[in-house]
Every structure is written in structure tokens, then in C-alpha cells.
Amino acid sequence: MRNKCTLVVFLLLMMAIFLVSCTDEKKEKTNVNNEISIEESEKLISDKEVLPVGTIVLLKEGNTKLMITGHLQFKLNDKKNLYDYCAVLYPEGQLDTKAAYLFNNEKIKRVYFLGYCDQKHRELTIKIKNIKKERIK
After folding, report:
1. Cβ atoms within 10 Å, residue 24
2. Is 134 helix (H, G, I), strand (E, B) or coil?
3. Which SS3 state, helix, strand or coil, does residue 3 take?
4. Which run of H or E residues covers position 28?
5. What is the pTM for the complete model shown?
6. Which among 36, 67, 104, 125 has the fewest CB atoms less than 10 Å away?
7. Are 83 and 104 in contact (CB under 8 A)?
8. Which residues of 74-100 are buried (b: 16+ CB within 10 A; e: fewer)?
9. Half-sphere exposure of residue 4, counting CA atoms within 13 Å on the CB side?
10. Nearest to 65 by CA among 55, 74, 53, 75
């Protein structure tokens, strides 16, 4: 009888260890922050997708993440150069009313998080692409 109890306890312990290890494995595969993969990031950049507001990126020459806050922006006193994006530091946000980072799609090294996309964003994407085509002419 004692051997059977020992065997049952041993089997229960083994099952518990197995279940805990499965849970840990699942946690490692699940991205808690919804961070997108390097492959997805590279595809978004190479396809020159219009990234939505709220997207978190890292620029090629940068070491701090930025959050996109706008599209098709000019520098003050320079209406000649139109930039694809306007952004603020992440996670700090806007620290100064005059501080904004302006950059184009080709300067993006990595996309970490994709902002909210809905029908309004898709409509805006079409408008942005049309505006950029017109400026090229």
C-alpha cells in the first residue's frame, strides 16, 4: 500500500512539473507586449507600408525608440521637404512643444509595435499614397 501511495505522489509530482514547464514554454512563445517579429518588421519596411499613429519604431541612426504621432509633416520654415512621419520619444512622449522627430520610411531600422489600424487608417493610407505620388510629379 505504501509503495502505491509513493507511486501516486511521484506521478502527481511529475505531472505538476510537466504542466509548469508547458506553461513556461507557452509564455516564452507568447509576446506579452504584442511586439512584432523581426520578419514582420522587415516586411512592413520593405513594402513601404504607411505605419499608423502609435507605431513604435527605431531609426537606423538612433538608439531610442520613437512613437509615430503624425504623417506628412514639414519642418518649420521649410515647406520644401515633406517627411513621411512625425514622432516623439518612447516611452517619454512629447517633452517639449517644439520637439518632434521627422523622418522618412527608409530611415526606419525596426518596427516594434504596430499602432491601431481600422477603416479610417486604411482610408488615410490611400490619401497619403496619392499625395506622395502627386509630389513626385
Report:
1. 10
2. helix
3. helix
4. helix 2-29
5. 0.71
6. 104
7. yes
8. eeeeeeeebbbbbbbebeeeeeeeeeb
9. 1
10. 55
